[in-house]
Write a structure and sequence with these properties.
- The protein is of the alpha+beta class.
- The protein has 4 domains: about 1-35, no CATH class; about 45-255, no CATH class; about 330-470, no CATH class; about 500-638, no CATH class.
- Helix content is about 50%, strand content about 15%.
- Keywords: Golgi apparatus, Membrane, Signal, Transmembrane, Transmembrane helix.
- InterPro entries: EMP70, MFS_trans_sf.
- This is Transmembrane 9 superfamily member.
Length: about 650
Amino acid sequence: MIQFGGRQILLSPSGPVVLGFLIFSIFARLTAGSLLRGIAYHSYQEGDQLEVIATKLTSKINQLPYDYYSVPFCDSQDVTARSRRVNLGQLLSGERAKTTDFQFRMNKSQQCTLMCTVLLQNKDAAVLQQRIAQMYSVRLSLDHMPVVVKGTTKGGNVAYQLGYPLGFVEDDSHYINNYLRLKVLVHREHDSDRDYFQVVGFEVEPKSLSFYVETGEVTKEQCTAPRAAPLKVEAGTEVPFVYDVVFEESEMNWATRWDHLLKPSDDVVRLQWSVTMNSMLVGVFLTALVGFILLRTVLRDFVRYNQLDQEAPEEDSSGWKVLHADVFRTPRYAAPLCVFVGTGTQVFTMAAITQVFAVAGLVSQGNRAALLTAMLFLWVATSLVSGYTSARLYTSLKGTKSRKWVTTATAFLFSGITFIAFFVLNLVLSMFRSQAAVPLRGLVGLLLLWFCLAIPLVFVGAYLGYKRRPHEFPVRTNQIPRAVPKSPIPFARLILPLVAGIFPFCSFLCELTFILNTMWQGQIYFLFGFLLAVFALLTVTCGEMSVVFTYITLSNEDHRWWWPAFLASGSSGLYVFLYSIYYLKTHPGFHGVTLISVLIYMVYMNIISVAFALMTGAIGFHASFFFVKRIYGAIRIE
């Protein structure tokens, strides 16, 4: 039996165990199944059938991913037979698993294999032309290795592009890449008089060629013809889909098969080092400057106050010491502040653990679905942190009347707004028949995670927080509040926190650009070590700016420091949102972007900006709270 909100709740001894086991089983089925298959070690013998999986069609200028079979590719199977199970992270990222009509066997090269011939109807030609004009690319995978186009950068370094372009536009005509030269990199192992092979790479060279199909075959001379005309997409055109398969042995091991895709070019590494070192130098300089000034000022205040205590206590009538009886007074709107701090602490915990996992290699850096699944799991697990933090802080602020509201708002406010925005956006995506629309089973899975795991964990954390001893304050609070002097700067309480938020934003700006490129331009983010270093710098900067702003507020004899401490660093979320608008307008990848893509972009960037504001605000609040307790605990109060 537990007591919560003045009511006693009786729990069966076996009830929570059974419920927890059922919920965990559902979560494992929704999230872990495909991940485990994705990291399983696969070996093939020569001649074994290989299955090529299609995941989606993606574009940089149109954020709506589509199904592979939304365009007239070869399709000899029914919907049920070609579909494969995917996890919740893949559903949320718009990935599906559909089998294709590619037929080839391990270590058996093929040349000029005709997969099928498709006669384009008016509707098919229109869809193809639209997809080609919007620069869609085709995502395929073999043994969980994505197909890539191998190229070179301007500096001569090897670069890989995920997927291959569906076609190209030339002189207002649309051409489809119907001829694929596939290269499968394999690693050979010898065991018990048999050779085994592992797939360690999957490359493609797409071309658009007009073939003359006779008796259902394509001659080798046609595939190697240097002057073959490209195939124009028009109604009534017969499109033959032809492919070659070449198997090439590689010294690369199966465990390191992602390394060549995740290895950044020298230009990217130099740029990251330059950006990170500049940010670190600025951060170290700012930390040293702020620390020196603040430490020197606070020590001087301690000396002055101690001298006044010994010589003339009655002259102690200015500075932050005079607020000792009001500094820990319960602020206005304490309940919302506790909710924001608790939610922000949860975001910070989730972000920090995710980055540590990525750096340690526990989460595949190239598998966005796996990373999304890990973040979703951590968000559910850290719900305990948000409930505990908000409840204990509210109890420390002498809050008793709104305990239920604080706990409920912590469980529903940010998560509820995010889910409503996601649900509405999902309806819009369904209207456009985009593969990004999460099916019903995915929505049910999200609701089960939210209502059956996340919300109960928030309430358990709140129960523990209310039972825990409140934070002890070093000074007592008077019943009558002290009058606050009028500030000489108009709207200072609004303007100064906005100015303070610039510094945390600037410390994270360059890394934010890399993250946006990964999210919206289809790039792979692989430098999590740099991200973790910049994240640590962001944490320090948020704490410093909030502490400085809190000290300035108290020095002006204003005891209302609670909300400014949160807003001084939390206002950086506003600059993230403003920068996202600037990024949308200036990045060349968004030129010609569709209206629905803008809608998707703005909805998700709003959510990210709010989460960033809550996280940085919580960091600043905790730093200021620790600072205020320390300085008032170090002075003598008569």
